[in-house]
TrEMBL record:
Residues 675-792, 808-1035 form the SLC12A transporter C-terminal domain. One of its GO terms (biological process) is potassium ion homeostasis. Pfam families: AA_permease (PF00324), SLC12 (PF03522). Belongs to the SLC12A transporter family. K/Cl co-transporter subfamily. Keywords: Cell membrane, Chloride, Glycoprotein, Ion transport, Membrane, Phosphoprotein, Potassium, Potassium transport, Symport, Transmembrane, Transmembrane helix, Transport. The chain crosses the membrane at residues 83-103, 109-131, 169-194, 215-234, 240-264, 378-402, 422-447, 522-540, 546-568, 580-604. InterPro entries: AA-permease/SLC12A_dom, KCL_cotranspt, SLC12_C, SLC12A_fam. GO terms for cellular component: plasma membrane; synapse. This is Solute carrier family 12 member 6.
Length: 1035
């Protein structure tokens, strides 16, 4: 089949096209059946054509689609060409190897020992390896645009988790930038140019504080310069990246070569010891490690160290006891690979702050003698422990996301990301594990525990092992830390910009803007400010655990995302990377959580609180996004499971709560006629159970589909405004009564079906031009009865209080005339859970006939309420048998006359208005006639019968009312009298709603009975039970 180019003119797809068809249009004859849907269901060929032209844009698919739909002319972009090695492996290596390897790994090995050091490195590497496996699965499950970890998590776990984790990852990356800058400044001030220090302390106690101040000043200057470089252009950073990576590789190679060379020719770095205590190399000004030196055969002179321990330079000066009892000795800082020093370094030697670094294998007298900070020993600057070292070491294994962040530049991202990332982690893990062993096997323990290399005259400890000179490591590590800092300051603003552009966190919107070329200006400023906070902390050992937390939080959610998607088996979960399993993801998640609390439980809690706050903020204020995420899938699975668990039959009485179907009517402009119905439903529900808001649109579904969608949106907005949590449903039907019947039958799912219908009273039904309104009402009453649903009809709904108008006092009166399942008892209790009705008391009235014992009834009712645990005042109203009053008789007569008139003549509009006026005139006379005798009434009727009635009505006025109607009217009138008498001041009156007549001819009479029953009451709720018990005295 000759396929078109996918851009054929729309006009050619219609059958009645009279023009001759080209070969290009040949497909149209074969697809004629589908031509009218071509715009919504495109041909497969054109779809594939569009997919083939898809380009991985830096900012993600959304902008790409929007730009395409607008029809912007794009510049011909180069197709991404980077392979696994250049695109993923090397960037990951550069991001993983960093400052900790050069500045802290020797100290970690010295403090924790080789065994625990291996354990620390292994746990951290396992964590990143398991995370990389999960990340590879997510990254190969479809196209991952830029945004890396943020994009993956937000599209897998939803905007709330995505935003929370995205910001955690952003903060982690920003603090990493601060850490790298601090590392670079530490190398500069300690090992390259110690003389550059601005602040100096004359006392040993103040040296630490002076150093931190130097770090703050130089760190801030360095941050400013780096920010300017990033701001000016990222291309310079990317060009420098390869140079910085070369520095890292050269440095690591020099360590390995140095370790091998040390086996047969160890470098000379003597360490001075007093007893088993290490002496700082800075303090040996005259290069003599001893108490005295022989100037000539007989003349002995004291050394510089003598001055530091004694009160004078004389040989008979009083000296420190430990100094007197022990002698100086020299040991080699690097005994070499073949020396067997590893046996000493196997075990941990944790120190408290202020302890002297000691060598356990050397003999010492007066071990317990305290050392003074004024003496030239090497002291521990912080208290070390296994947990602390985990927090400090972990940042050296982060950086595994570097490959996924560059997915837009890769030739085959779905192949390169897993291979490159996992190879990089394997490489770095082998380097770290072998480095731990090499450091333990080559370097003496006291030098390893000497964090800043004081014992080896201020040399970088790793540098002492390097070949051919320590400067290789010093310069290499300085440039590599500067490069890593630049990478962090480049990546973090782009991540923030990606989050801001997704528009899920409203207050971050400003950070989505940038320069014309897309550079994130505002995001860069915020990043620099946050990084400055990290620099003001000034201590590498305090900043490292902070970013450890944020990265661990991010990795935890990557693992969670993979585990969830795998367990839910969502149809879209089809990663190309197949070597993953949900158990591995859960193990990775567990390790992340454990590491968070191991390294610093209080930082862990703070990080979790920050993430939770961001999550909740996005949930309440963030823009609604539907990304087909895993949490939505989890919700679906949980909902399905719960629905299947729900019993199909009615719930137990104890679990019964109103699951409400609210029937709303829309006017011609698609506005809700009685929005207070929804307000009332929300007060009744207090946020619990099921609420379905339904409406019926008259018409044909095929023509009225758009109208139905508009109606649903109206319902949705009203529900949002009233803060009603539930579902909305719109049914299109030819007749409203049929639509309501269909809705009552079909609403809900499984055990979550509505059991209560709330509908409005048809206003001014007597004067209504449309008799269908009240007929639909009665039909709905019948349908709910047939479906065994409860029915609530609020009358005068416009007078009901809104959610912002709480009732300060008053009563909710319940008129319990017949028992239909206890709805009347339960409803006031539920209403009083809401703030609007909370302060209202509850009164329950019941009606006693002549034959009833009203005193006993009152006792029984009080006991019943006591067992129901409902507090209410109880009153029994006695209704005496009485003759049917003239008013009742007259009211019944009027009702029958009116219905008969309407039945006999389908009146024109003008006639109906005149008829309505007649009824009104008669009504006004009723109050006077109530006291008349039958004779006077008949006399009045005789004199007035011909004066204002049309000719055809005269016969009707002489009819006699039906006896059953008179009885019903009598009940309505009598009850109304009693209710108005007792409850005229009540905030709300709940009343049993009588059922409609079996014979449909009496429908209009039924409406009249209900009107009479509720006359003179401000707010009435007519209640009709569903036929099942809804309240119980049992626990």
């Amino acid at each position: 089949m000759d396929q078109g180019d996918g851009n054929s003119k729309i006009s050619s797809v219609y059958i009645n096209n009279t023009h001759g068809m080209d070969d290009d249009d040949f497909y149209d004859r074969n697809l004629a059946l589908f031509e009218e849907e071509m715009d919504t269901r495109p041909k497969v060929s054109s779809l594939l054509n569009r997919l083939a032209n898809y380009t991985n844009l830096t900012q993600g698919a959304k902008e790409h689609e929007e730009a395409e739909s607008i029809g912007e002319k794009k510049k011909a972009s180069k197709s991404p060409q980077m392979g696994t090695f250049m695109g993923v492996y090397l960037p990951c290596l550069q991001n993983i190897f960093g400052v900790i390897l050069f500045l802290r790994l020797t100290w970690v090995v010295g403090s924790a020992g080789v065994l625990q050091g291996l354990c620390i490195v292994f746990i951290c590497c396992c964590c990143t390896m398991l995370t990389a496996i999960s990340m590879s699965a997510i990254a190969t499950n479809g196209v991952v645009p830029a945004g890396g970890a943020y994009f993956m998590i937000s599209r897998s776990l939803g905007p709330e988790f995505g935003g929370a984790v995205g910001l955690c990852f952003y903060l982690g990356t920003t603090f990493a930038g601060a850490m790298y800058i601090l590392g670079a400044i530490e190398i500069l001030l300690m090992y390259i140019a110690p003389k550059a220090a601005i602040f100096e302390s004359k006392h040993p106690e103040g040296e630490g504080a002076a150093m931190l101040n130097n770090m703050r000043v130089y760190g801030s200057i360095c941050l400013l310069l780096m920010s300017l470089l990033v701001f000016v252009g990222v291309k310079y950073v990317n060009k420098l990246a390869s140079i910085f990576l070369a520095c890292v590789i050269v440095s690591i190679v020099s360590i390995y070569v140095g370790a091998l060379v040390s086996a047969f020719r160890p470098p000379r770095f003597p360490v001075c010891m007093l007893g088993n205590r290490t002496i700082s190399g800075h303090e040996i000004d005259d290069n003599h490690c001893g108490k005295t030196i022989m100037v000539s055969v007989q003349v002995e002179k004291t050394t510089y160290l003598w001055k530091r321990f004694c009160q004078g330079t004389e040989l008979n000066a009083s000296c420190d006891e430990y100094f007197n009892s022990n002698n100086f000795s020299k040991i080699e800082a690097i005994p070499g690979l073949a020396s067997g020093i590893i046996s000493e370094n196997l075990w941990s030697a944790y120190l408290s702050k202020g302890d002297v670094v000691e060598k356990g294998s050397l003999h010492s007298s007066l071990v317990s003698h305290p050392a003074s900070t004024h003496q030239p020993y090497v002291f521990a600057d912080i208290t070390t422990s296994f947990t602390l070292l985990v927090g400090i070491f972990f940042p050296s294994v982060t950086g595994i996301m570097a490959g996924s962040n560059r997915s837009g530049d890769l030739k085959d991202a779905q192949r390169s990301i897993p291979i490159g990332t996992i190879l990089a982690i394997l490489t770095t893990s082998i380097v770290y594990l072998s480095s731990v062993v090499l450091f333990g096997a080559c370097i003496d323990g006291v030098v390893l525990r000497d964090k800043f290399g004081d014992s080896v005259k201020g040399n970088l400890v790793v540098g002492t092992l390097a070949w051919p000179t320590p400067w290789v490591i010093v310069i290499g590590s300085f440039f590599s830390t500067c490069g890593a800092g630049l990478q962090s300051l480049t990546g973090a603003p782009r991540l923030l910009q990606a989050i801001a552009k997704d528009n899920i966190i409203p207050f971050l919107r400003v950070f989505g803007h940038g320069k014309a070329n897309g550079e994130p200006t505002w995001a860069m400023l915020l990043t620099a400010l946050i990084a400055e906070l990290g620099i003001l902390i000034a201590s590498l050992d305090l900043v490292a655990p902070i970013l450890t937390m944020f990265f661990l939080m991010c990795y935890l959610f990557v693992n969670l995302a993979c585990a969830l998607q795998t367990l839910l088996r969502s149809p879209n979960w089809r990663p190309r990377f197949s070597y993953y399993h949900w158990t591995l993801s859960f193990l990775g998640m567990t390790i992340c959580l454990a590491l968070m609390f191991i390294s610093s439980w209080y930082y862990a809690i703070v990080a979790m609180v920050i993430a939770s706050m961001i999550y909740k903020y996005i949930e309440y204020h963030g823009a609604e996004k539907e990304w087909g995420d895993g949490i939505r899938g989890l919700s679906l699975s949980a909902a399905r499971y719960a629905l299947l668990r729900l019993e199909e039959g009615p719930p137990h009485t104890k679990n019964w709560r109103p699951q409400v179907l609210v029937l709303l009517k829309l006017d011609e402009d698609a506005h809700v006629k009685s929005p207070r119905l929804l307000t009332f439903a929300s007060q009744l529900k207090a946020g619990k159970g099921l609420t379905i808001v339904g409406t019926v649109v008259s018409g044909n579904f095929l023509q009225s589909y758009g109208e139905a969608l508009a109606a649903e949106q109206t319902l949705k907005h009203l529900m949002d405004k009233e803060r009603v949590k539930g579902f909305y449903q719109c049914i299109v039907a030819q007749k409203p009564r049929e639509g309501i019947s269909h809705m009552i039958q079909s609403s809900g799912l499984g055990g979550m079906k509505p059991n209560t219908v709330v509908m409005g009273w048809p206003h001014a039904w007597r004067q209504s031009e449309d008799p269908q309104a009240w007929k639909t009402f009665i039909n709905t009453v019948r349908v709910t009865t047939a479906a065994h649903l409860a029915l609530l009809v609020p009358k005068n709904i416009s007078l009901f209080p809104s959610n912002s108008e709480p009732c300060t006092e008053g009563y909710i009166d319940v008129w319990w005339i017949v028992h239909d399942g206890g709805m009347l008892m339960l409803l006031p209790f539920l209403l009083r859970q809401h703030k609007v009705w909370r302060k209202c008391g509850m009164r329950i009235f019941t009606v006693a006939q002549m034959e009833d014992n009203s005193i006993q009834m009152k006792k029984d009712l009080a006991t019943f309420l006591y067992h129901l645990r409902i507090e209410a005042e109880v009153e029994v109203v006695e209704m005496h048998d009485s003759d049917i009053s003239a008013y009742t008789y007259e009211r019944t007569l009027m009702m029958e006359q009116r219905s008969q008139m309407l039945r006999q003549m389908r009146l024109s509009k003008s006639d109906r208005e005149r008829e309505a006026q007649l009824v009104k005139d008669r009504n006004s006379m009723l109050r006077i006639q109530m006291t008349w005798t039958k004779e006077k009434t008949s006399q009045y009727r005789a004199t007035h019968s011909g004066c204002s009635t049309p000719e055809g009505f005269r016969d009707m006025l002489s009819i006699r009312p039906d006896h059953s109607n008179v009885r019903r009217m009598h009940t309505a009138v009598k009850l109304n009298e009693v209710i108005v008498n007792k409850s005229h001041d009540a905030r709300l009156v709940l009343l049993n709603m009588p059922g409609p007549p079996k014979n449909t001819d009496g429908d209009e009479n039924y409406m009249e009975f209900l009107e009479v029953l509720t006359e003179g009451l401000e707010r009435v709720l007519l209640v009709r039970g569903g036929g099942s018990e809804v309240i119980t005295i049992y626990s």
